[in-house]
Design goal:
With about 90 residues, the protein is mainly α. The protein is about 80% helix and about 0% strand. The radius of gyration is 13 Å and the shape is flat.
């Protein structure tokens, strides 16, 4: 619905719960980081988006491997965001 400000606390809470229940290095934790990163992008917070998605990618590369479809998707997200940075 486009209410990114109202959505953010839910994404942050999901990340907090996944970190507590599943741990820092779980694929679902990476998914929450990725989701929060995408939200930040839509909020115009590019650097924060890159940070969250970079964290997600680091987890996925270790836990799932470099060639896993989720890892590839997150890498694509990070490449897209990085291309948006001004030089």
């Amino acid at each position: 619905m486009g209410d990114y400000e109202a959505a953010r606390p839910y994404y942050e809470k999901a990340l907090e719960i996944r970190r507590e229940v599943l741990g820092q290095r779980h694929p679902s934790t990476a998914t929450s980081l990725n989701n929060l990163g995408v939200l930040c992008y839509y909020q115009g917070q590019l650097n924060e988006a890159i940070d969250f998605i970079g964290q997600a990618l680091a987890i996925e590369e270790v836990v799932l491997g470099a060639n896993h479809p989720s890892t590839k998707s997150t890498r694509d997200n990070l490449a897209f965001l990085t291309s948006k940075q001004t030089k």
